[in-house]
TrEMBL record:
SMART domains: AAA, GAF. Keywords: ATP-binding, DNA-binding, Nucleotide-binding, Transcription, Transcription regulation. The keyword Iron does not apply. Residues 185-414 form the Sigma-54 factor interaction domain. Residues 453-467 have a biased composition (Low complexity). SUPFAM superfamilies: GAF domain-like, Homeodomain-like, P-loop containing nucleoside triphosphate hydrolases. This is Nitric oxide reductase transcriptional regulator NorR. The keyword ATP-binding applies. It comes from Castellaniella daejeonensis. Residues 437-467 are annotated as: Disordered. The gene is norR.
Amino acid sequence: MEALLLNDLSADLPDGVRLQRAATAIREAFACDAVGLLMLDAADTLHLVAASGLAHEALGRRFVVAQHPRFATILSRREPTWFDPESVLPDPYDGLLDDRKGSPLPVHDCMGMTLYRDDRPWGIMTLDALATGAFDEAARARLRRLGLILQAAVRVTDLERENRQLRQLGSTQQGLEHIGEATEILGHSEAIQSLLHELDLVADSDLPILLLGETGVGKDLFARRLHRRSRRSQQPMIQVNCAALPESLAESELFGHVKGAFSGATSDRPGRFEAAQGGTLFLDEVGELPLSLQAKLLRVLQNGEIQRLGTDQVIKTDVRIIAATNRDLKANTQAGLFRTDLYHRLSVYPIPIPPLRDRDRDVLILAGHFLEFSRARLGLRGVRLSYEAERALRQYPWPGNVRELEHVISRAALKMLSRGASRDQVLTIGPELLDLDITPPEPPAEASPQLVASEAAPPAAATDPGAIAPLRDSVEACQRRAIGEALAATQGNWAQAARALGLDPSNLHKLARRLGMKHESGIAS
Ligand SMILES: Nc1ncnc2c1ncn2[C@@H]1O[C@H](COP(=O)(O)OP(=O)(O)OP(=O)(O)O)[C@@H](O)[C@H]1O
């Protein structure tokens, strides 16, 4: 087994896949029910980076060590730790073991071991078996040997790079309170993995980058990552929300002013360009920049020089520009809303960010991340999704992308409590609480094993007639998706969406209301 594991670990594979394989191999070797590999960050938070036998959404979970005594115990020892099945310490995986469907874990065997790198804890490995007595003395000795092999593997992989990122993350993030504003980009899908790879390639190039994507896809996070991975990472990153710049003050905000430049200018003040000197200036929602300012911005980008308002003195700038927009800037240039020359300056390297609906099962990983945030914030023992809720999340087109998912999950967790659920139980969120207005098809009669993090195979084609959704449901799901996509493509403009769909606007409103995508007062949140 050890030889096989070594083989897997030395294969030429992306790090995530390598660790995932290791988790699966360890689970098979110990014939246990779940294996987790968790990486520690500088804020003493463990990130589940690979798992076998745990629900897919578990991969988005982050565990603050101080809140999980079992993990704290494992981390405090060099030798493997075995937990007595009668141990009263709460189990961090309560409700997450794949075949438990949200019910509390019964008495079971559990052991774990700290993995070190350069004599500092890199993270931990955990093993769970529902059969008590599965982990005897021999198993613990074996775990120790395995731990040493894994440690060696961790050393030679690029994971060190990822780990460094996590360490940096931890130092700017004080534990769970900030997890909702995740600075780490979650996602195992091909779409996100290749995007991250591309970002890392261009991060250091100093080229201006234009991030394109629907609202809520994470453009802000990607911009931060670009800065963090660039040679300017030790210098400031200054963000300007172009949509929020009042036209009258915009010039002074960007370029600064001197005392007396206008009434109210009582002292010299540097602008955002100067504040970003040596670092990165992030022009968010750049498509909203007023035309008058576009010309001035263009001049600065061409000359690399700024002048504060009220003076002729020229200041040389050394700033890398990252811009983001959810508009179709090219179309805006044709419509005369955005200057073509500025568009070309900004879009030297355009990077489209895929919408959530194109990211496969990342929606579950992200849901797990937001569930853990809600769990900690609301003081719950555990909270997870039912199979049907998972299906609903995967079917929904997510016009509001990750931001919408975040709101859906926090609202569902709150609703459970307001309906009288106990904080001491592991709560299971069903589709009705998600309020997504899609009718998920019934699960096949025989409960199929839940999707396991390690076995990322696409769902099998439905051959069981019972598993086929009624025609009306399929038609409605299709209509919802088309409307969602049209709204996303038109930035929520119902009139334009109606035109794109070939519908009369009032009919679109009627249809959207019938499909539950729009309340009388507006769009369903
Ligand atoms: N891959 C991801 N992993 C973790 N959290 C994410 C991810 N993508 C987005 N988020 C979270 O979703 C929320 C919305 O992301 P963000 O504000 O970056 O979107 P945006 O594309 O800039 O939206 P807008 O165009 O409306 O400004 C944030 O809370 C962010 O932390």
